[in-house]
Amino acid sequence: MFTGIVQGLAEITRIEKKPGLHTLQIHFPTGAMENVAVGASVAINGVCLTVVQQESRDTICFDVMMETLSCTGLGKLRHGDRVNFERAARIGDEIGGHILSGHVHTQARVRALEKPTNNYRLTFQVDTAWMKYIFPKGFIAIDGASLTVAETGEDTFTVYLIPETLRVTRFALLEEGDMVNIEVDSQTQAIVDTLARLGYDGSMPPRSKY
């Protein structure tokens, strides 16, 4: 489980590619991986990965299998790329964002990037099938960062970022056309899907009790 509070940026230092499997070597800020162990979970750009090897105090290796490579942006990472990271939450930790599984649902493309005075506005385009789970003022995780949706369109949604978020995450590095990983809010998804099964999604009249 993760909280969506990105703990910083790490750097891809090596990628070993085999058929259907990439091994990522990632260098983290000093002390960020203190007491990490093989088998521990770390979210990289919102994707829950398992530590498979610790090469030094701050350099960790992760295996990324074929399904993850095809469904997320991890397969397109290159040497030197910077990624968001968050270690798994522990019992008693403050939940500053919202509860995440680290299981990416889909990807979105940066549609627009605007910088009005003292603001940073990002608009993303996503497959319309996922828009039923994205609402203004609702939660969404973008590359593992818990954010609040500001506005929505037919196939777009917009978020605003404060300077601290830009400092800690990779969002300041994004350009128009870049892809990001998306995890929709699990509670919203459960409610929407339950209502749809009961016929309250507008596709059919509600079921009669009789």
UniProtKB/TrEMBL annotation:
A molecular-function term among this protein's GO annotations: riboflavin synthase activity
InterPro entries noted in UniProt: ATP_synth_asu-like_sf (IPR023366), Lumazine-bd (IPR001783), Lumazine-bd_dom (IPR026017), Riboflavin_synthase-like_b-brl (IPR017938)
Reactions that this protein is recorded to catalyse: 2 6,7-dimethyl-8-(1-D-ribityl)lumazine + H(+) = 5-amino-6-(D-ribitylamino)uracil + riboflavin
Alphabetical list of Gene3D superfamilies matching this protein: 2.40.30.20
Keyword annotations from UniProtKB, A to Z: Repeat, Riboflavin biosynthesis, Transferase
Pfam families noted in UniProt: Lum_binding
Enzyme Commission numbers on file: 2.5.1.9
GO biological process assignments: riboflavin biosynthetic process
Lumazine-binding repeat residue numbers: 1-98, 99-195
Domain Lumazine-binding stretches: 1-98, 99-195
Pathway(s) where this gene product acts: Cofactor biosynthesis; riboflavin biosynthesis; riboflavin from 2-hydroxy-3-oxobutyl phosphate and 5-amino-6-(D-ribitylamino)uracil: step 2/2
Keyword Transferase: yes
UniProt xrefs under NCBIfam families: PRK09289.1, PRK13020.1, ribE
Matches recorded under PANTHER family: RIBOFLAVIN SYNTHASE (PTHR21098:SF0), RIBOFLAVIN SYNTHASE ALPHA CHAIN (PTHR21098)
Job of this protein: Catalyzes the dismutation of two molecules of 6,7-dimethyl-8-ribityllumazine, resulting in the formation of riboflavin and 5-amino-6-(D-ribitylamino)uracil.
Protein name, UniProt field: Riboflavin synthase
